[in-house]
Design brief:
alpha/beta, Isopropylmalate Dehydrogenase, twelve-stranded mixed β-sheet, 12 strands, about 40% helix, about 15% strand
Length: about 325
């Protein structure tokens, strides 16, 4: 496989979580066709962690992304980030929140400057960030704010055989239902269709749109949102030239035969999208933020404090995120 011209930038994530564990394990599998990457993290922390979980990973501090690809074959390239407090796996400390955010900021800046092919983010601990004054619901919204996007960001979750997009994201369920709108569904569908063409190589994308209520409202007997909000959005997407079906009952959208009929599903709320993807392939799910001026992917799991620093964390989701980021970056560069 041809490597990306630029390395991928991987963020530290919550340092007390499993981000470091899976980065070390992913580098150890670098010869399985991975594009070169560097991680923005504390080199001493990663060295100590490698010893703790018993993986043979040399750590090489670098002073610029441009040298990462040359280093990558023999050592894990690390762009140093200072941590205010020592890290104990499984014990997050809000004092380290500025370093977590700095790593994200630097990765985004490097991608924007054309010095990194894509951004791959490790899981953050939102509660810890909130305690330090973080005002955003999550990674997706923060990335959109960093690049000055005022429109709602779009999160796509991907695993082999399924792509799902929650129209409303990190909201309490009652709030998600109350804020669902035709305009939001249309905007989401347009961004998804464009991303499927540009970043995933699907020339004529097919979208399915899930209903909100049981049996997609049963003709209005079980709810009015399908007729009043979702169906008008589907009509507008069709009028815009997008191949789309819906609103469809969500309970029959995700079995194998149904998944063969569409390229992505627009879901009305967070768990409607995340439950099927995590059930079908928990270990290889990838989170993508669509509509950004750079490629961003992430493992589709959390910080897993209970196994951080034990060596039990599995790196498959990060490997999938790295692989997909490299493929998307090559398509955007016209080399896919």
């Amino acid at each position: 496989m041809a490597a990306a011209a630029l390395p991928l930038a991987v963020t530290m994530g919550e340092p007390a979580g499993i981000g470091g564990d899976i980065v070390l394990k992913a580098w150890a599998r670098r010869r399985e066709g991975l594009d070169p990457f560097f991680v923005i993290d504390n080199p001493d922390r990663l060295r100590a962690l490698a010893q703790r979980i018993d993986v043979d990973v040399p750590v090489a501090p670098i002073d610029a992304p441009e040298v990462a690809s040359a280093v990558f074959g023999e050592a894990l390239p690390v762009l140093p980030e200072t941590l205010p407090r020592a890290v104990e796996p499984g014990c997050p400390d809000p004092a380290n929140a500025p370093a977590v955010l700095s790593a994200i900021d630097r990765a985004v800046r490097l991608a924007g400057e054309g010095r990194a092919a894509a951004v791959v983010t490790n899981p953050i601990h939102k509660k810890c960030l909130y305690q330090a004054g973080f005002p955003h619901p999550g990674h997706t919204e923060y990335l959109a704010a960093l690049v000055g996007r005022q429109s709602r960001p779009v999160m796509m979750l991907v695993c082999p055989g399924l792509r799902v997009v929650p129209v409303t994201v990190h909201l309490p369920l009652a709030t998600a239902v109350a804020t669902l709108s035709t305009e939001a569904i249309v905007a989401c569908g347009e961004i998804v269709a464009a991303a499927l063409r540009r970043d995933l190589g699907i020339v004529e994308p097919r979208l399915a749109v899930a209903g909100l209520n049981p049996h997609a409202g049963e003709g209005g007997a079980l709810g009015s949102e399908e007729g009043e909000i979702i169906a008008p959005a589907v009509a507008r997407l069709k009028a815009g030239g997008i191949t789309v079906t819906g609103p469809m009952p969500a309970d029959t959208l995700f079995h194998a035969r149904a998944r063969a009929l569409y390229d992505a599903t627009l879901c009305m709320y967070h768990d409607q999208a995340l439950i099927p993807i995590k059930t079908i392939d928990f270990d290889r799910g990838v989170n993508i933020t669509l509509g950004l001026p750079f490629v961003r992917t992430s493992p589709d799991h959390g910080t897993a404090f209970e196994i951080a620093g034990t060596g039990a964390a599995r790196e498959e989701s990060l490997l999938a995120a790295l692989t997909l980021a490299g493929e998307m970056a090559r398509r955007r560069a016209g080399r896919g």
